[in-house]
């Protein structure tokens, strides 16, 4: 399944919104440079949820990678693009 970066980003925004509905305004400003920890305040538990939800959403598996490898939304998008190709 081939998807554009924009499509992947929109689906990731949906996942992030489901994690914390109070952050709707912040979610709309997310782009590839958004830092997961500093800009979004994701903890290690949040990151684990993000990975699980992303695996389910995109029907992929995060294997052989550490959560620490994902600093920005763009890092996650790049991984998803590679897993989908």
List the topology elements.
Elements: H1 5-19, H2 24-28, H3 44-58, H4 73-84
Helix pairs in contact: 1-3, 1-4
Could you tell me the CATH topology label.
Non-ribosomal Peptide Synthetase Peptidyl Carrier Protein, Chain A
CATH architecture: Orthogonal Bundle
Unreliable stretches: none
**How would you classify the helix and strand content by structural class?**
mainly alpha
Overall outline: globular
Query: What profile does the largest beta sheet have?
Result: none
What is the C-level CATH assignment? Mainly Alpha
Distance between the termini: 7 Å
Q: What is the assigned CATH homologous superfamily? A: ACP-like
Strand residue content: under 5%
Compute the number of helices: 4
Radius of gyration: 12 Å
- Give the H and E element order: HHHH
Whole-number tally of structural domains: 1
Q: Mind explaining what this structure looks like?
A:
The protein is mainly alpha-helical and 85 residues long. The chain has a single domain (5-84), classed as ACP-like (Non-ribosomal Peptide Synthetase Peptidyl Carrier Protein, Chain A, Orthogonal Bundle), CATH 1.10.1200.10. It has helices at 5-19, 24-28, 44-58, 73-84. α1 packs across α3 (44-58) and α1 (5-19) crosses α4. The relative contact order is 0.21.
């Amino acid at each position: 399944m081939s998807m554009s970066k924009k499509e992947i980003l929109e689906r990731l925004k949906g996942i992030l919104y489901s994690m914390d509905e109070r952050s709707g305004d912040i979610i709309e400003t997310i782009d590839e440079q958004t830092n997961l920890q500093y800009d979004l305040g994701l903890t290690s538990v949040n990151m684990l949820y993000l990975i699980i939800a992303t695996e389910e959403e995109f029907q992929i598996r995060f294997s052989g990678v550490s959560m620490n490898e994902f600093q920005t939304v763009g890092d996650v998008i790049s991984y998803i693009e590679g897993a989908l190709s």
